[in-house]
Fold this sequence. Notes:
The protein contains 21 helices and 16 strands. By secondary structure, it is an alpha/beta fold. The protein starts with 6 loop residues before the first helix and ends in a 26-residue tail after the last helix. Among the domains are: 189-313, Alpha-Beta Barrel (TIM Barrel); 385-525, Glycoside hydrolase family 3 C-terminal domain (Rossmann fold), CATH 3.40.50.
Amino acid sequence: MLERLTQEQKNWVETTFRKLTLEEKIGQMVNERAYTVLSQEDPVAYLDKYPIGSIFTGSEIIEENAADSKGTSRIQQIADKAEKNVPILFSGDFENGIGGQIEGFTTMPRTMGLSATFNKQDYYDFGKVIGSEGKAINVRWCFGPVSDLNINRENPVTNIRSAGDDPDHAVEVLKNIVKGMQDQGCAACPKHFPGDGTDTRNQHLVTSLNVLSMEEWKKMHGRVFRELIEAGAMSIMAGHIAFPAGEELDPVKQIWRPATCSKRLLTDLLRKEMGFDGVILSDALCMVGYLCWGDYETRIVDSINAGVDVLLWPDPEKFFPLVKRALADGRISMERIEESAKRVLAFKAILGLAEKGPARMEKEKLQALLAENAKTAKRIAEDSITLLRNRDKMIPLRLPAGSRILAFIAPERPAVTKYLSRFVSHLEKRGYEVTTAKSEDMAVLRKSLKTFDCVMYLADANPQYSAYRTADPIFWNLVGNEDVKNLVVISFASPYHLYDMASVPTYINAYHDCPASVDALTGALFGEIPFKGKSPVSVPFCFRFGDGLTV
């Protein structure tokens, strides 16, 4: 990281490093949640006692009418008062735009939807939108893009968060996202090294595995991360993922060591062999894939010694005393703490945190930026919609006004109903009589199916809702019923539903239920815009990478 600095930045790092207290050196390794700080009786005193280096933000980072050079959010005011030698870096988990966390900002399709555009400009602009809006509110570190390959379509974590299953294509998508983000002064953080998406376990619940051989890994996830390193990614997030090809079963514990605790994976493989000189961030330390490695002290000491520079949500009240004890008894070396502290200072220098001046964009400029970024989100969404099946030539949909449409919404969750009600509203505005239904309504509707001119199955199953496959008894009743006319299946999430619905005549992938994707899907459905998307994933005997119909 130091090699990336200008001479002026190097001088700032060296001067600042010499001023650091032990607590401030330790604090550079801590990224804590904003609400942890805000929940304290005296937040400024808390940050004085625990001088953390970075803060994870969401809606706490912006307040009404505060997005200008004079106004600032409460957490930033607190940080400004508490800062001594080192400015605090604000970060966020903005995988597909800040709008998912902060109302009024831009939400774009998930990464897989972006990947379906097969458009290099879209990839770059996706990163540009995130980076520009992050910098506008002084969030300079984004935990993304998700750089896992969804090799196993049964994986419960990656799915639409990934760029797909083809490493050649994923590299192009992800490199341009990283460049778009970092060109705006917002650091990217590809995740989750050494790569998720090969098994069927969830690292939130268990230490998941990357099950590839080393040879396979170097062609797949290894290649992706290596090219992102070469493209200049400033940080990488390590996952609570074990890699048996890179490190054997622990002989004492008889369990697999997560990458977040593995010196062999982070120092030997990522740093030395792959040449990464940026900041290594851990995934959230509250996940069971990490917790199951051992007690708190074992986990933290192992992570620091493995090479993690910044730990995500380590609980400062426990972390600072532990690190001091471990330094005193020799479990952690001062050299190791100072290595990370200096690397984080270099990270902050590159991001301009040493510079003085307004931290946030003026309100008028921000509104202009948001308006322009909304156009970009619309364009990306319109480029993504993928038509994979149109056997009965139903698309574009030309039902006369007044036609009756039955729309089944799955899974049965309030959030799904909320998001997809936008699509239903679009149908109603076009003059259709729409009846929405759930599985439990089927018994009543079975006798009246013949009265509907079109039946739509709106699938929103994805890992966010802990359900990534959507074939259920309701679908059986639809496909096997001769009274159903004009069946259309639309996935607003997982791209794999056609695998479970191979008999349907009409099938579309929209990849996301955000407003931009819903609007774009509607336009394509009625022939107002063309279908441009191509599938960024493949399923044997079902559809291939790059498939996509035009009408």
